[in-house]
Amino acid sequence: MATPDRPLPAELEVFSKTQTIYLGDDGLLRRMDYDIEIAGNTSGAHYVHDYIEVAGIKFPTRRRIYPRQADGSSLSEPLVVSIDLVGIEVS
Predict the structure, then answer these.
(1) By the 8 A CB rule, do 15 and 38 touch?
(2) Which is nearest to 32 in space by CA: 50, 17, 19, 49?
(3) pLDDT in tens, 28-77
(4) Which residue from 16, 54, 81, 87 lies 20 to 30 Å from 10 (Cα-Cα)?
(5) What is the reported pTM?
């Protein structure tokens, strides 16, 4: 798990200037926690999984975002965002 020491630079256009990033033992991203500033600082736990390798690059093919509670745990419902990627190509 990696927690940022400081917010991201003001000139960087992101939905949240402060994020907590969780990496697996393999070094791959597993989860990101953030508060969505443009949505009233709504707390989210963003999970990525089911990696595939295409042209030597690993891509997570499933993304799920759930509400995050004040203690950092995520709720199992409601599912806020669900993204499944298929047919990834690198050219």
Answers:
(1) yes
(2) 19
(3) 999 999 887 766 778 999 999 999 999 999 999 999 999 999 898 999 99
(4) 81
(5) 0.80
Cβ distance 68 to 81 under 8 Å?
A: no
User: For residue 12, is it within any domain?
Assistant: no
CB atoms within 10 A of CB 64: 17
Give Cα 44 to chain centroid, integer Å. 9
91 is a domain residue: no
Q: Which residues contact 78 (CB under 8 A, 6 or more apart)?
A: 66, 67
Give residue 61's domain range. 19-84
Coil, helix or strand at residue 39: helix
Check residue 25 and give left, alpha or beta (phi > 0: left; psi -120 to 50: alpha).
Answer: alpha
